[in-house]
Amino acid sequence: MIQTDDNEIEYYSEKVRGYEGHRLTAELSKLYHDLKAMNEDDKITSYVDERKEKVSNEIEMLKRRIGVLEQEIGRRKKDSSWVW
Fold first, then answer.
1. Which residues of the chain have pLDDT under 70?
2. Assign residue 7 a region: left if phi > 0, alpha if psi is -120 to 50, beta otherwise?
3. Eight-state DSSP code of residue 18
4. Whether the Cβ atoms of residue 19 and residue 29 lie closer than 8 Å to each other
5. Number of structural domains, the chain?
6. How far apart are CA 70 and CA 84, in angstroms?
7. Quick one: pLDDT at residue 48?
8. Positive or negative: CA dihedral 51, 55, 58, 41
9. pTM over 0.85, yes/no
10. Among candidates 27, 16, 28, 31, which has minimal Cα distance to 62?
């Protein structure tokens, strides 16, 4: 599972390198919204252990994708290619 997650994040990282600035921020906003919704869902619903684990894995993947986007925005700011 971890190897698959790492591959997915690597693919996602490659994909976002081609995004324009406004698309990066829109994607980042969407992921933060999804993360907030998942966290709320995790808090108010009592899931069976299997479902809780799936939600936890989804939250972790969202956090990793957010990290990829923030890293890409930071890289662009550093090399002065960030237009926002």
1. 1-2, 41-50, 84
2. alpha
3. T
4. no
5. 1
6. 14
7. 64
8. positive
9. no
10. 31
31 falls within a domain: yes
- Tokens 């936890």 -> residue: 56
Within-domain flag for 16: no
The total of other beta-carbon atoms located within 10 Å of residue 22's CB is 10
Residue 13 inside a domain? The answer is no
Whole domain around residue 33: which residue ranges? Answer: 21-77
Say if 14 falls within a structural domain.
no
CA-to-CA separations, 27 to 12, 36, 41, 49, 71, in angstroms, rounded: 12, 14, 21, 30, 13
The residue type at 29: S
Question: What gap in Å lies between CA 35 and CA 31, rounded to an integer?
Answer: 6
